[in-house]
Amino acid sequence: xxxxxxxxxxxxxxxxxxxxxxxxxxxxxxxxxxxxxxxxxxxxxxxxxxxxxxxxxxxxxxxxxxxxxxxxxxxxxxxxxxxxxxxxxxxxxxxxxxxxxxxxxxxxxxxxxxxxxxxxxxxxxxxxxxxxxxxxxxxxxxxxxxxxxxx
Length: 151
Description:
The chain is mainly alpha-helical and 151 residues long.
């Protein structure tokens, strides 16, 4: 069996692994983007809530309303801190998946290069073999004519 035929399943497996890691990388990128959007949304909500509180605070607020505002603001800030952690975790995951994809890509390209070199070597070998066979046939034809003259 030719080397290229033996390498074909290895190449297919490497390319499949590369596609799989690319898909996972894409999913990680989407998760990071979603986490960043959620963080941005929470920060926007907190800023709007604070601005609204400031406007209503200028008109005067009861102490109960002030306490509720501080409690709610603390909850929003906790949610923002949690979301910042989620963004950081998604960034870390994305970097990990990027490295995995790069390694799979490098491996796949290496296997492809070996596969293509094998194909080139096989073509050269086949061409050389065909040329040798043609030379032998031509030599037999020319020698056959010479031998017939001696007989």
